[in-house]
Amino acid sequence: MKTVNIHQAKTQLSKLIAKASKGDAFIIAKAGRPMVKVSAIGAPAGDEIQRLGFMAGQFTVPKDFDRMGEREVERMFGAEE
After folding, report:
1. Is 49 a member of any domain?
2. Which of 13, 56, 73, 74 makes the best surface tag, with the fewest CB within 10 Å?
């Protein structure tokens, strides 16, 4: 994430806002110390990011998934009787 000082932020504000609105958040620092983070409204923040289910509907699991390769495993390790 890009860090800019207050002077840079003042002189390049329009450009920085345009980038932030496209998802490229940045930090404004004062004397090298981070002060604020600028990000697009609606962009998920750290604890708001949802990972579970992010690929829902993009692939399917075969019904026999738990039995796939069963013959090969039996051949390698012997079938239990």
Report:
1. no
2. 56
